[in-house]
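Table S2 (continued). Query chain:
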Amino acid sequence: MRTFLQTTAVLMCSTSLALAQQRAVQGVVTDSKGEGLPGATVLVKGTTVGATTGGDGSFQIALPAGATTLTISFVGSKSQEVVVGNQTNLRITLESDTQSLNDVVVVGYGTARKSDLTGAVASVSNAQLTQVATADPVQALQGRVAGVDITANSGQPGAGTRIRVRGVGTINNSDPLYVVDGVQTGDISFLLPTDIESTEILKDASATAIYGSRGANGVVIITTKHGKAGKTQFNLFGY
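Corresponding output:
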């Protein structure tokens, strides 16, 4: 009995310590008119911890120890970073971004403006990919897209990473379909992040319909850089 009580006490202390390392932060995300934005993405900067706002724009998220900044994004609005500090209740106003709705993204049927899309499509630019010092293009996507989980295959150097779009969708292989410049492939480790112009991730059935069952686990469409008219430009990346 005494051993049982000691074990219980240790477990309770461990649980209390784990809870003390993170704190709950809640808030509401609104537009410039003060109306709540449902479906906005709230991410803890530098991590994969995130939440989605409800119908009234409210959210609640567990802020890990050491984390101080939240990144809030919503389609048609400018992304915003908020330093939490000691606050536990936030009110965040996002400004509209009409320019982003006119941006062109690559989808299965060709290209389309963001304002014309009805499916779940996320776009990551070259500027975002090259912010991470890595030679693995999949690893460079980590923390960039909501609903996309990226983990290392093992702890060994060069072991590679795997990507899961909206969780595990099939019993055997749950890797998404990769399409590089219109060519389907099973791996993109041969690419360098600096060679990629843009990356689009198709996440739902309406966006991946053209690929049939091959797109059951999502589709990652990559467009590499190519020659453009104008002055010659050199970029040097040293890691």
